[in-house]
Amino acid sequence: MISLDLAIIWAGIIGFGVIMYVIMDGFDLGLGILFPFAPDDESRDVMMNSVAPVWDGNETWLVLGGAGLLGAFPLVYSVFLPALYIGVFLMLAGLIFRGISFEFRFKSKRNRHWWNRAFCGGSAVAAFAQGAVVGAYIQGFAVEDFVYVGGALDWLTPFTVLTGLGLMAGYALLGATWLILKSEGYIQQWAYRITPKLLVAVLVVFGIVSLWTPLVSPEVRDRWLSQIHLIWVFPILGMVCAYVLYRAVKRQEEGLPFVASLGLFIFTYLGLIASKWPVIVPPNYTIWDASSAPESQLFLLIGVLFVIPIVLAYTAWTYWVFRGKVRVGEGYH
Amino acid sequence: MELDPLLLSRIQFAFVVCFHAIFPVFTIGLASYIAVLHGLFYKTDNQAWDRLAQFWTKVFAVVFGMGVVTGIVMSFQFGTNWSNFSFATSNFLGPVLSYEVVTAFFLEAAFLGVLLFGRGKVPEGVHLFAAIMVAVGTFISSFWILSANSWMQTPAGYEMIDGRFHITSWMAAIFNPSFWYRFAHMGMASFLTGGFVVAGVSAWFLLRHRDVEANKKALSMCLWLLLFLAPAQAVIGDFHGLNTLEHQPTKVAAMEGNWETSSNVPLLLFALPDQEAQSNRFEIGIPSLASIVLTHSADGEVPGVTEMAPDEQPPVALVFWSFRVMVAIGMLMIGVAIAGLLLRRKGRVFQSPLYLKTLVGMIVSPFLAVLAGWVVTESGRAPWLVYGVMTHAQGLTPSLTGGMALFTLIGYVAVYTVVFWVGVYYLTRVVRNGMIPDTAEVSGEVERAKRPFSAAHTPFDGDFEGASK
């Protein structure tokens, strides 16, 4: 019984870590994707300054999630990483270039255009790779006897390319609504203009993915058709968020667009989990199959329960300290 | 030619881990030094200590940042290239590696920000406390990593069920037989690294007559420290070697270049080990000394590599020579520290250009010694990944092809080359900038973030304002 409880607790922790990562690193990756389209270099400064204090805190969730998976659900770790081998490398390379460009763009004058490119390219590649991972998760993996037996590029299909592009659009939407919240004047107006376009792109991709998913995953199809009453709540709530977002942009509200796009992400995520639960390595392995030994899950749980509140408090405090608008020329000259 | 995913994965792991290791081994030592500087300033109120603390905290921030960036890759390597190993050992390595991450985040969240940005904003005592906690935190982090590595060298506290390790005693597994030796040896290596870098940089400043008072203090302190640490490391290393002899005799045999188990084994100064012929093609040694060192008796028996079948032997030449590089550098360190004492008696330690230049050159020595040491211990246990239980081949990701491994190997080399040159380039600028008091105007950057690098205000390009004074 204790192993059952621990597996569910750990699924909750990892699930929480993943969504924290997606929405928090999502908007700063999104700003990187929007970087080349920004009106001018001053607005790029504002975009980068608006996330500079928080971005590395956002990425702590990725590392915590990775380490937590090895400790709690090693099967996920030992199947996903080999199966997504090339994609994982691209994501890491993207995040590294993006990370160092964050540090050095501020300190650089002559070479700034190089750091702009590294920031944008790194963000775009990382976002695409993460989206493709979501698609690969929906597709499922060729696993025999707890070992991945597929090829190096099995994950790269038209479906995962679409989910990759979809997440890029989704992150860009988060980034644009974040910018509405954090900027003013012509930069904010630019963000207001691009937000509806990004929203349309996101909804189109999500629509196609939703129609396509039952074709790539028979298990999901069966669940969608057998449990209509419960699962359909999430896409409906997602559509409500999209509508709220659209109206809020029309009315030039500042905070609501970001909140609504967060809602859109969260409900999509919950819908995905509800479609797969309790399978964690699709198509066959559940969270209990994928668990490490109960004594290992328990040993690690103590440390994680201790540190998560501290990381949350630290995160909240950082966001509080750096609340308010970022202005042109502020932050550095 | 067929690409071998096993060989390529081993090269890739060695490259990534060596590259990563040079950063933490420095920050661990440096964090303690910074804590000491803060303590001295707190006690004496001498501004020189404060200026030194500020300067080295900037360096610490950049190196720590690079360590974090390169460390992220490490946490994915186990899964991408060694998935069978990860799955089999996850019950132990999962929690232990996670605790390392948890410690690092706790440290960063709670104390690093205060150390980097709290100067003048928090009471001096609180600042000192943060500095001490950062130093302690780096040690706790290395505690977990070295426990994981030691467990792979000398596995303990487990039983095998269906091909997976299940922990029966966390105490026995975490504090496994080689753990304390390795922890002491690496901790001392970190202190030596910090010591030689600080000594070298101080010497560099003294050669240019910059901040003479503070740098004399720093150099003097470092030389006293090294005078005790360098010989102590030799003693600890000896104990570590005896521990290895007990648990991994073949590794010691390879270190000594000794093929046949025998007594009165010479200590080889030079040899050309030949794995094919299972003997040395040429050797020069001091008779019976290896027997004396390892068994404390001239006719003591020293194990030979041929106790193991050829396919279970480590690459002898690599282990043999890496060991000699490490030991030679260790001897050189002791020599430099003693030379400092002699020059001090003649009062010329801060004036001798030759000695100061030697110290500048010695900056790279601890890094080389650490890497050579890790090559000894890691390739010395080959072919075992978990000693005596799981080989490298068994731990490899089954679906991995040579092409995939080559692709990411080239990729990581490319990415890290950029990171390394950018980092070292920037670090040298921070150092050349020296102990100029920071103002936001120097770089035009206002502290917006608790990002490690933003603690160093040096501009990435353009001219220094004031650096040439």
UniProtKB/TrEMBL annotation, chain A:
A Pfam family assignment: Cyt_bd_oxida_II
Membrane topology field: Multi-pass membrane protein
InterPro entries named in the record: Cyt-d_oxidase_su2
Alphabetized UniProt keyword annotations: Cell membrane, Membrane, Transmembrane, Transmembrane helix
Subcellular localization, as worded in the UniProt entry: Cell membrane
Family: Belongs to the cytochrome ubiquinol oxidase subunit 2 family.
Protein name: Cytochrome d ubiquinol oxidase subunit II
Organism: Vreelandella gomseomensis
Recorded name of the encoding gene: cydB
From TrEMBL, chain B:
Location within or outside the cell: Cell inner membrane; Cell membrane
PANTHER family: CYTOCHROME BD MENAQUINOL OXIDASE SUBUNIT I-RELATED (PTHR30365:SF14), CYTOCHROME D UBIQUINOL OXIDASE (PTHR30365)
Keyword Iron among UniProt keywords: yes
Lineage of producing organism: Bacteria, Pseudomonadati, Pseudomonadota, Gammaproteobacteria, Oceanospirillales
Source organism per UniProt: Vreelandella gomseomensis
Membrane topology according to the record: Multi-pass membrane protein
InterPro entries (alphabetical): Cyt-d_ubiquinol_oxidase_su_1
Pfam entry (one): Cyt_bd_oxida_I
UniProt entry keywords in alphabetical sequence: Cell membrane, Electron transport, Heme, Iron, Membrane, Metal-binding, Transmembrane, Transmembrane helix, Transport
Record field: transmembrane: 12-34, 55-76, 96-118, 125-146, 179-206, 218-236, 318-342, 354-376, 404-427
Family: Belongs to the cytochrome ubiquinol oxidase subunit 1 family.
Domain of life: Bacteria
Main location: membrane
Protein name: Cytochrome ubiquinol oxidase subunit I
